[in-house]
Structure formats: structure tokens, C-alpha cells
Automatic annotation (TrEMBL):
EC number: 1.1.1.37
Organism: Arthrobacter psychrolactophilus
Signal sequence range: none
PROSITE patterns the record matches: MDH (PS00068)
Domain spans labelled Lactate/malate dehydrogenase N-terminal: 6-149
Family statement drawn from the similarity comment of this UniProt entry: Belongs to the LDH/MDH superfamily. MDH type 2 family.
SUPFAM superfamilies: LDH C-terminal domain-like, NAD(P)-binding Rossmann-fold domains
Enzyme's top EC category: oxidoreductase
Gene Ontology MF: a single term: L-malate dehydrogenase (NAD+) activity
Protein name: Malate dehydrogenase
Residues noted as binding NAD(+) in the record, renumbered to the chain: 11-17, 105, 112, 129-131
């Protein structure tokens, strides 16, 4: 059997953590042959609840689980980590201003960036799920001097999957027939779900739907799906977010299928006019554990306006955390 892969999950006692850990332990993320050592990081107040999840993980008797440990010390939790899923974050509390939120999370993600720098494995891959995910990834990367910034990504795969599901429902086609959909920008209401390059069973998606559906129904529905889930379910998206985290990392490690791509927020290399260094969502292909922003796509005027608006929000988040001294 291959050597176990060490996977550190933060926010392990939270809603997403509860849905995520069992999927990883079952082999959904790294495949049916790869043993996993799970390191669970929580704040001290929630460490006991995480221990409870460990009891249940034991009771699943998953053959791939090579280790299970709970930590409240980031340095220990990230020691030897090959994969880090940064799910734990500070939610926006009543009366909290945006600056308070950025600063509370800046405290968390700067500490975790330094801890990753100290002890993570040389091949570490990081996906930030906790919001504001893009900017949290930027902060963590800036505090991990010795790790290439490109290893720090933020999750927009849930937005991608939501968009695929909406296009499938609209066209009556199976989700498996849809390729080359892309999420651009920030994981926030300003994101741009883009179907201009997408195909449905090989047919251009834009020839199957009206422009008014794209701008008035599709984009707002995908961008506000999180709020819709809260309104209907009475709780935030947890299982679908966990599934997207599994897919984000599965595709990064195992590669995207030929003729398709995924969406990931990654440090910009200046592609598509997105300022270098900003962690922004792009269509990416992956292979051999590396990813590449899909080059050379035609960007319509409509797309340009949408991408620019979301990138402007990322710039303002970066300015705010710079002002707070968090970068
Ligand atoms: P939750 O509140 O149920 O769980 C968060 C957990 O993180 C709590 O157990 C808390 O104790 C822990 N935590 C807080 N600070 C920590 C730290 N410094 N170290 C380790 N653990 C820490 O929240 P839920 O529903 O699991 O969501 C987690 C995050 O994911 C939220 O920020 C949410 O906004 C975000 N999210 C992102 C999505 C995306 O598409 N990128 C989709 C859905 C949620």
C-alpha cells in the first residue's frame, strides 16, 4: 500500500467538518487505495466535540484510516501535512463590521499560514473554505514565506457545481454532459458564473438558453444559492460544501478529465487582466498535482464587466487587510 497521506482539517467540529471527514476517510478524495492520516484542528472550546467525531470515525472502521488525532495547536496539527483543508473561520456576528470580520479571520489565517510554513510537508496543497475564502487564502500564503504562494487556493467548486446543476436543470440534460463552465472572481455574491465556453452534450450552452435567463436568473441564482439554502433548509450549506471541498482536492491531486476544467481560486499570474497575486477564481486544468489557468479564452464584453466587478471587490478586501497590517 502507498504511504499514508496526512490531511489536516480545520474547523473539524463544525457543520462542514462533520460532513467532510467521513468522505475523506472513505476514500472519496484521494481514491480507494490511499491511506489517510487525519489531523483535526479545532479551537480549545470545540476540541471535545471533535473528539466525539473521532469516536464516530473509529466506529466506521474505515480501512483507509491510518491515524486520527485532534489538536488545538496549529503547529502540531499541520506538522507533516500533505493536504490542508482550512474550513474553520470566524463567522460574522451581530453588529460586526466588515473590518472586524476581516481582522478576526486575519488573526486565524496568519497563524495558520505560519504553522503550515513551519511544519507542513514540502508538497503541501492548501484549500481555504472558511470565508472570506479568497482573502483568507491570500493572508495564509503571505505568512508562509517558504511555501510557494501557488499552493494556497480557495474553494469555488461549490459555485461551479451549483452552476452546472442549474444549467442541467434548465436544459434538461444530465450534469455529466456539461463541460467547461467557469467561475471567475471572488467566492461572494459578486462572483461570475460563466457559460460562454460551456457545452451541453457538445452543443454550445449559449445556443440553448436566452441571454435574459443568464443575466436575470442563472447568475443571481448561483451567486445567491447560499442564502437560498439557508432560507429553505434553516441552516447553511454544509454537505454540498463538503462535497465541493472533496472535489476541489480530488481534481487537484488526480487531474481534470481531458476536454474539461474545474474552477479554483488561485493566486493570479496576471492572466485575464486580474492583478497579479490576487487569489481569484479561474477555470483551471490540473495534471500531476499541478494546476494551470486555462489560457487564451475569449472574454466577451459582458464577461469582462462581470469579472472586473468581482476583481474590484477582491482588491478592496486586499486593501482592507493591508491597512489592518495582516499581509
Ligand atoms: P461552523 O460554524 O459550523 O464550523 C466552523 C468551525 O470552525 C467551528 O467548529 C469553530 O470552532 C471552528 N474554528 C473557528 N476558528 C478556528 C480556528 N482558529 N482553528 C480551528 N477551528 C476553528 O461553520 P461551517 O458551516 O462548517 O462553515 C465553515 C466555513 O466555511 C464558514 O466560514 C463558511 O462561511 C464557509 N463556507 C464556505 C463555502 C465556500 O463555498 N467557500 C461554502 C459554505 C461555507
Amino acid at each position: 500500500a502507498p504511504a499514508p497521506v496526512t490531511v489536516t482539517v480545520t474547523g473539524a467540529a463544525g457543520q462542514i467538518g462533520y460532513a467532510l471527514l467521513f468522505r475523506i476517510a472513505s476514500g472519496a478524495m484521494l481514491g480507494p487505495d490511499v491511506p489517510v492520516k487525519l489531523n483535526l484542528l479545532e479551537v480549545p472550546q470545540a476540541a471535545k466535540a471533535a473528539e466525539g467525531t473521532v469516536l464516530e470515525l473509529m466506529d466506521c472502521a474505515f480501512p483507509l484510516v491510518a491515524g486520527l488525532e485532534v489538536f488545538d495547536d496549529p503547529t502540531k496539527a499541520f506538522d507533516g501535512a500533505n493536504i490542508a483543508l482550512l474550513v474553520g473561520a470566524r463567522p460574522r456576528g451581530p453588529g460586526m463590521e466588515r473590518a472586524d470580520l476581516l481582522s478576526a479571520n486575519g488573526g486565524i489565517f496568519s497563524v495558520q499560514g505560519r504553522a503550515l510554513n513551519e511544519g507542513a510537508a514540502s508538497d503541501v496543497k492548501v484549500a481555504v473554505v472558511g470565508n472570506p475564502a479568497n482573502t483568507n487564502a491570500l493572508i495564509a500564503a503571505s505568512h508562509a514565506r517558504d511555501i510557494p504562494a501557488q499552493r494556497f487556493t480557495a474553494m469555488t467548486r461549490l459555485d461551479h457545481d451549483r452552476a452546472v446543476a442549474q444549467l442541467a436543470a434548465k436544459t434538461g440534460a444530465p450534469v455529466s454532459s456539461i463541460s467547461k463552465l467557469a467561475i471567475w472572481g471572488n467566492h461572494s455574491a459578486s462572483q461570475y458564473p460563466d457559460i460562454t465556453h460551456a457545452t451541453v452534450g457538445g452543443t454550445p450552452a449559449t445556443s440553448l438558453v436566452e441571454q435574459s435567463w443568464i443575466s436575470e436568473e442563472f447568475i443571481p441564482r448561483v451567486a445567491q444559492r447560499g442564502a437560498e439554502i439557508i432560507a429553505v433548509r434553516g441552516g447553511s450549506s454544509a454537505a454540498s460544501a463538503a462535497n465541493a471541498a472533496v472535489e476541489h482536492m480530488r481534481l487537484w491531486v488526480q487531474g481534470t478529465p481531458a476536454g474539461d476544467w474545474t474552477s479554483m481560486a488561485v493566486p493570479s499570474d496576471g492572466s485575464y487582466g486580474v492583478q497579479e497575486g490576487l487569489v481569484s477564481s479561474f477555470p483551471v486544468t490540473t495534471s500531476g498535482g499541478d494546476y494551470a489557468i486555462v489560457p487564451g479564452l475569449n472574454i466577451s464584453d459582458f464577461s469582462r464587466t462581470r469579472i472586473d466587478a468581482s476583481v474590484a471587490e477582491l482588491l478592496s478586501e486586499r486593501d482592507a487587510v493591508t491597512e489592518l497590517g495582516l499581509l
